[in-house]
Automatic annotation (TrEMBL):
PANTHER family: COPPER-SENSING TRANSCRIPTIONAL REPRESSOR RICR, TRANSCRIPTIONAL REPRESSOR FRMR-RELATED. InterPro entries: Metal_Tscrpt_repr, Metal_Tscrpt_repr_sf. Pfam families: Trns_repr_metal. It comes from Streptomyces dysideae. Belongs to the CsoR family. Keywords: Copper. This is Transcriptional regulator. One of its GO terms (biological process) is negative regulation of DNA-templated transcription.
Length: 111
């Protein structure tokens, strides 16, 4: 079992000063999240209107997939920027970033 450092569970104050890895895709990510938000509101309306269960489940599946795509984009940006920069700067910092990625994957995959 991998031990996750304490700082991997909370925001890194040093990293807060640096631009995020997704900075170049922030508008795209926000656009995707706004669409998801609209889809969730649509699902809420569907339930309120007593729509057919399978139609609601289909929409829930679409929202789930859309959120997974956002998560994969964020993970890709994190690895390509934050982890890459940390590995180049300092071996210990790089190891900590790899631990963060492992933790993020465990949470995402619910392992």
């Amino acid at each position: 079992m991998t031990t996750i450092p304490d700082h991997a569970h909370t925001a890194d104050p040093v990293a807060n000063a640096a631009p995020r890895g997704y900075a170049g895709h922030k508008d795209d990510q926000l656009s995707r999240l706004h669409k998801v938000e609209g889809q969730v509101r649509g699902i809420t309306r569907m339930v309120g209107e007593d729509r057919y269960c399978i139609d609601i489940l289909t929409q829930i599946s679409a929202v789930t997939h859309a959120l997974q795509e956002v998560a994969l984009g964020l993970l890709d940006d994190h690895v390509r920027h934050c982890v890459h920069d940390a590995v180049r700067a300092d071996e210990a910092e790089g190891d900590a970033k790899f631990d963060e990625v492992t933790l993020a994957l465990r949470r995402t995959l619910r392992l």
